[in-house]
Design goal:
Layout: E1 4-7, E2 13-17, H1 28-33, E3 39-43, H2 63-77, E4 82-87, H3 89-101, E5 105-111, H4 120-136, H5 142-149, H6 152-157, H7 159-171, H8 174-185, E6 201-206, H9 214-222, E7 228-232, H10 239-242, H11 244-261
Helix pairs in contact: 2-3, 4-8
The protein binds D-malate.
């Protein structure tokens, strides 16, 4: 059973998929800030937030399986078509939805993500981390991930956001983390999909994102027909949580374009 949280009674459906190793809490500014114009739903992928892991973490939880889990939520909610937002790993899931269920999309927000597959080095690192998460729990990921996920401004001006992200990471399960690391490691390259994206799209990048930096995001946007590219000041890799107002302004533009095109 996939846990989710929704707000808003009218307007186009918007489904939001979190990054790794986070949960739906990273979208709280969008649940609050977009519900006047859309029916906004943020989900917890298996093993994160309130959703139990899909397996014991010894097998991959693939991006395809994650895509099907998102579609199951859309089906349960009666969302025939929806605007999809995915951050980083959520973007990898969005690419799997494009492969498997493109007809369900009204619009697409790719936040702080990349279309490239992992390098062999990154894959090896993920598989080692998956083993370690199962052996000792995923807590070892928290400190190094926190440093890289958030902008320097967030650490100085918003310690409460740093705490929120830390709490989210500490709630993730070993099986969820291990399965997702294996799933991300085997995801295919998505660059071949980009020129075929036929729905209004925005690519959003935190100005201080060191994991998926803005120059890569700009190239991603340039490869998608008609895509808008938005840089969010004073934000790192978790721009929707670090700078909700600027991110919401960008997402509102997408929601309007998607409604007009529907
Ligand atoms: C994320 O934020 O989801 C991660 O940076 C994705 C990844 O590890 O590639």
């Amino acid at each position: 059973m996939i846990a989710y949280e929704g707000r808003g009674a009218a307007g186009p459906p918007v489904l939001l998929v979190h990054g790794f190793p986070l949960d739906r809490g990273m979208w709280r500014g969008q649940l609050d800030g977009l519900s006047a114009i859309a029916r906004v739903v943020a989900i917890d992928l298996p093993g994160f937030g309130d959703t139990p892991p899909a397996n014991d973490g010894r097998a991959p939880f693939t991006m395809d399986a994650a895509a099907d889990a998102v579609i199951a939520v859309a089906d349960a909610l009666g969302f025939a078509r929806f605007v999809l937002g995915g951050l980083s790993m959520g973007g990898y899931v969005a690419f799997a939805i494009l492969r498997r269920h493109a007809h369900r999309l009204l619009g697409l927000a790719l936040c702080d993500t990349r279309a490239e597959a992992d390098t062999p080095d990154t894959q090896r690192g993920r598989l080692a981390d998956a083993e370690r998460a199962l052996a000792e729990g995923p807590g070892f990921l928290v400190e190094p991930s926190l440093e890289r996920l958030l902008a320097a401004e967030t650490f100085t001006l918003h310690p409460e956001i740093v705490k929120t992200v830390e709490v989210m990471m500490r709630r993730s399960t070993a099986a969820g983390v291990a399965g997702m690391l294996r799933g991300m490691a085997e995801r295919p390259d998505a660059r071949g999909l980009l020129r075929g994206i036929a729905v209004p799209t925005i690519v959003i990048a935190g100005a201080a994102d060191v994991i998926t930096p803005p120059d890569g995001a700009q190239k991603l946007a340039a490869a998608i027909p008609g895509a808008e590219f938005a840089v969010i000041p004073a934000a790192g890799h978790v721009a929707p949580l670090e700078a909700p107002d600027a991110t919401n302004a960008a997402l509102r533009r997408l929601i309007r374009r998607a409604s007009a095109a529907a």
